[in-house]
Design brief:
The chain is an alpha/beta fold and about 160 residues long. It is about 25% helix and about 30% strand. Helix 1 packs across helix 2. It is globular. It binds 1-O-pyrophosphono-5-O-phosphono-alpha-D-ribofuranose, xanthine and magnesium ion. It comes from Taklimakanibacter albus.
């Protein structure tokens, strides 16, 4: 692990589903929302859960890439928000969903596209937190969140032999 990341926060599918559902509960009172914009790829999974819970059927994507594993590179917007969802009102009644906010670079870029939309993430780190309207769990800035789609089952050495928390 890069020395910038001192702690790890592994999340199972079960836990992620529970946390995404908790996000939907928090968003329930904020709407109504006419559409969800998922920030790919990480936002696709919570967007599906939230859209199911809140009965939203219009799902749009904004495609952004910035990290190559744990290294942050230049932010690239590969696909913007379609006109049908973006409209002319700056995204009023639109819900933007991502898995997490870290430095806030991704959130800042997408917020600029839809300034009046509601921005929601499952996890938030302190630097990015001010950019998010609704989130579920905060983790420290030096924590790397391991999402379930990036992991597989593997042997873990006993604590006595140097297993890391
Ligand atoms: O707040 P930031 O510092 O911008 O980091 C947060 C973003 O980084 C990750 O996406 P990534 O660019 O790795 O692409 P992915 O969703 O396809 O994994 C994560 O899913 C967020 O979208
Ligand atoms: O899987 C991830 N975990 C993180 O903590 C993170 N921060 C930015 N991008 C990230 N992706
Ligand atoms: Mg992402």
């Amino acid at each position: 692990m890069d020395e910038k990341w001192q702690k790890s926060f592994p999340v199972s599918w079960d836990q992620f589903h529970r946390d995404a559902r908790a996000l939907a509960w928090r968003l329930h009172g904020e709407g109504p929302f006419s559409a969800v914009v998922a920030i790919t790829r990480g936002g696709l999974v919570p967007a599906a859960v939230v859209a199911r819970e809140l009965g939203i059927r219009i799902i749009e994507t904004v495609c952004v890439a910035s990290y190559d594993y744990e290294k942050q590179g230049e932010l690239q917007v590969l696909k913007g928000v379609g006109e049908a969802v973006a409209g002319s009102d700056g995204g009023k009644h639109v819900l933007i969903v991502d898995d997490l906010v870290d430095t806030g670079a991704t959130a800042r870029a997408v917020r600029a596209m839809l300034p009046h939309a509601h921005f929601a993430t499952v996890y938030a780190k302190p630097e990015g937190r001010p950019l998010v309207d609704t989130f579920v769990t905060e983790v420290s800035q030096d924590t790397w969140i391991y999402l379930p789609w990036d992991m597989g089952l593997a042997f873990t050495p006993p604590i006595r032999d140097g297993a890391k928390v």
